């Protein structure tokens, strides 16, 4: 589905980034992983056959220079996907949350998404085609105890729709995926970094089960599910999809 396409995955060293990189490579794409931790990038690159570059996706100059470098090496950029963590802090009522914890994912998230999407759209507009993809939880539709995640998701939702309108006439598609959590990415370490108390694997398994129970299908999306959807959206089979968010929450909420 992605034969001869060139894809850049920002935040590609995480579990979801690795899953998408594998799917893209299997579909025929040349994949460039981007992240801040070389050891983690090396591991994913070895597993997927991807290439990698170490940089901070919040660094505007570095992202622009990297996009230019990818075009120099591969002649084009066909797919750009941003999966960079935003520093979300959850599980605390808004009335007890600090301004910094609430605003951090909003400021980081929209800045990083804007920087990478803009860099990709500039190159794609020049070549007359391309797909810019994003992903978030869909919490802007309403999710209690999610802190600034809801506001960050809402800002990114708007960015994707606006960029699609502006870049569409040049042949560039822009869209996103709502997941409301991908359960096989959840680990005690990841939850702790988002503000959750220390917990063991059994407690995390209970959270996964709780998320499953909230879905219409009683099954949460998995890495492989989202990777397959991201492959479809990036391919020519998704040519009519732009300016929208695909609800891949397994029915966490209707849309």
Polypeptide structure, described:
With 255 residues, the chain is α/β, with parallel strands linked by helices. The chain folds into two domains: 6-182 and 222-247, NAD(P)-binding Rossmann-like Domain (Rossmann fold), CATH 3.40.50; 183-220, no CATH class. 46% of the residues lie in helices and 15% in strands. The chain is built from eight helices and seven strands. The chain has a seven-stranded parallel β-sheet, sandwiched between helices. Helix 1 links the parallel strand 1 and strand 2. Helix 1 (15-26) packs across helix 8 (223-234). The mean pLDDT is 93.
List the helices and strands and how they pair.
Blueprint lengths: L5 E5 L4 H12 L3 E6 L2 H11 L2 E4 L5 H15 L4 E4 L16 H29 L2 E7 L12 H19 L4 E7 L9 H6 L7 H14 L8 H12 L9 E4 L8
Helix pairs in contact: 1-2, 1-8, 3-4, 4-5
Compact summary:
The chain has helices spanning 15-26, 38-48, 60-74, 99-127, 149-167, 188-193, 201-214, 223-234, and strands spanning 6-10, 30-35, 51-54, 79-82, 130-136, 172-178, 244-247. It is of the alpha/beta class. Helix 1 (15-26) runs parallel beside helix 2 (38-48) and helix 1 (15-26) packs across helix 8 (223-234).
Q: Based on Cα principal axes, name the global outline.
A: globular
- Summed up, the helix count is 8
Structural class assignment: alpha/beta
Here the CATH topology of the largest domain equals Rossmann fold
């Amino acid at each position: 589905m992605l034969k001869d396409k060139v894809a850049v995955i920002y935040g590609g060293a995480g579990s979801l980034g690795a899953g998408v990189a594998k799917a893209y490579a299997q579909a025929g794409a040349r994949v460039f992983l981007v992240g801040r931790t070389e050891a983690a990038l090396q591991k994913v690159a070895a597993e997927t056959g991807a290439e990698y570059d170490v940089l901070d996706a919040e660094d505007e100059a570095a992202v622009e220079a990297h996009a230019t470098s990818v075009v120099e090496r591969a002649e084009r950029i066909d797919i750009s996907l941003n999966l960079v963590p935003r520093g979300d802090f959850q599980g605390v009522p808004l009335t007890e949350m600090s301004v910094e914890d609430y605003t951090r994912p909003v400021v980081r998230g929209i800045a990083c998404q804007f920087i990478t999407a803009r860099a990709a759209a500039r190159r794609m507009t020049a070549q007359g085609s391309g797909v810019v993809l994003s992903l978030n939880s869909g919490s802007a539709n309403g999710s209690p105890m999610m802190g600034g995640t809801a506001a960050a998701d809402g800002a990114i939702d708007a960015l994707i729709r606006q960029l699609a309108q502006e870049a569409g006439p040049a042949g560039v598609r822009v869209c996103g995926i709502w997941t409301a959590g991908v359960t096989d990415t959840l680990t005690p370490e990841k939850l702790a970094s988002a503000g959750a108390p220390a917990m063991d694997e059994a407690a995390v398994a209970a959270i996964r089960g709780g998320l499953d129970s909230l879905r219409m299908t009683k099954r949460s999306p998995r890495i492989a599910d989202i990777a397959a959807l991201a492959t479809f959206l990036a391919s020519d089979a998704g040519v009519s999809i732009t300016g929208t968010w695909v609800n891949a929450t397994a029915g966490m909420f209707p849309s």
